[in-house]
Design brief:
Number of domains: 1
Shape: elongated
CATH topology: Arc Repressor Mutant, subunit A
Distance between the termini: 17 Å
Radius of gyration: 16 Å
Largest sheet: 3 strands, antiparallel
Number of helices: 5
CATH superfamily: Winged helix-like DNA-binding domain superfamily/Winged helix DNA-binding domain
Strand content: 5-15%
Order of helices and strands: HHEHHEEH
CATH architecture: Orthogonal Bundle
CATH class: Mainly Alpha
Length: 99
């Protein structure tokens, strides 16, 4: 059998992104942002019927993993999907499904 070289750092980064998108609340946020191009935290927590702090926590996790981007407009920060990153994650998962 051929020896497989595993890049542990790369594996850790992949696992971290998968953990970020695997939480039900974060999936709900991603789903909301597939319907609307951008939303602020107030719109998100109101729509999901959760506390503002909870929404901010999940948004920060998704943003730190590159799944979401943000842009300030005056006093508001709008969040949006980083569609290329999300598409790469989904494509990778789909390739794993084929094994």
């Amino acid at each position: 059998m051929a020896e497989i070289k595993i890049d542990v750092a790369q594996l850790e980064r992949a696992a971290s992104k998968l953990r970020a998108i695997s939480h039900p609340m974060r999936i709900a946020i991603i789903d909301l942002l597939t319907v609307r191009d951008k939303m602020n935290v107030t719109e998100i927590y109101t729509k999901l019927k959760i506390e503002q702090a909870t929404a901010s926590h999940h948004l920060n996790i998704l943003k730190s993993k590159g799944v979401l981007g943000s842009k300030r407009d005056g006093k508001m920060i709008f969040y949006f999907l980083q569609t290329e990153i999300l598409a790469e994650i989904i494509e990778c998962i789909n390739r794993c499904d084929e094994i």
